[in-house]
Amino acid sequence: MRDTLAEAYTRTRGPVAYLDESYQAPDPVITTANTFYIFTAVVVHHEDMDELRKGLEDIAGGRYWHTRDALAATKGRQQTEDMLGFLADGSEACVIAHRVPVDATDHDAEQARRACYRGMAMELARGAEGKWDPVELLVLEQRNQKNFRNKDRKNHSELVAEAKIPRHTRQIQVSPSLERLLWLPDVVSMAFRRTLTHHDRTSTLFEIVKDQVHFVQPVD
Predict the structure, then answer these.
(1) How wide is the angle at C-alpha 89 spanned by C-alphas 86 and 95, nearest 5°?
(2) pLDDT of residue 49
(3) With CB atoms 3.0 to 4.6 Å apart as the test, which of 10, 72, 135, 171 could cross-link to 156 if both were Cys?
(4) How far apart are CA 127 and CA 93, in angstroms?
(5) Cα 71 off chain centre by
(6) 181 and 140 in contact (C-beta within 8 Å)?
(7) CB–CB of 212/98 below 8 Å?
(8) From CA 95, how far away is CA 16, in angstroms rounded?
(9) CA-CA distance, 121 to 17, in Å (whole number)?
(10) Tell me: the pLDDT tens digits for 62-110?
(11) Closest residue by Cα to residue 98 from 51, 49, 41, 46
């Protein structure tokens, strides 16, 4: 997979978008209230990748990071603030598609995920003048179950088949252990999630990056 990712980078001319999500599905066993789906992309230029990887690793103190786990401890909360501040010091555009609430019948939130991905991919591929150049490669955090990975590929293929995005726009799914730049959408997704779920200090984390965040509409 590492070789596949490296090959994808060499074939990509423009910036690369890194995508991750955070959500609360309307599970009838747990809760059908306060549901949401957040899909976040961070757009990175090739010349900035190495600097960003090193900075993220320095803040995390190693090669593992998951914002949800980090926020459970005082040190991790400070690291999360530092990571958001590091991102805010740069020029990387952050793009969020979100659905609030998730339809009550969408028990696994896959319909919401599809709509958010469609809206996100279309806007990333189109580009936004003065914000980000058209994106040809979308690097998505790989999900654990094969059927979910297949759904993500199908969501992308449908956009190509419908001519909603150019044929050369590609999706690749990888683990954050292979690409630390996936930590960026993870931390932004969690910061935005906290504005919906918490009222403590962590609910203000999103303020650090809000000026470089652009919201796009989900597309069913």
Answers:
(1) 85
(2) 97
(3) 171
(4) 11
(5) 18
(6) no
(7) no
(8) 13
(9) 9
(10) 999 999 999 999 999 999 999 999 999 999 999 999 999 999 999 999 9
(11) 41
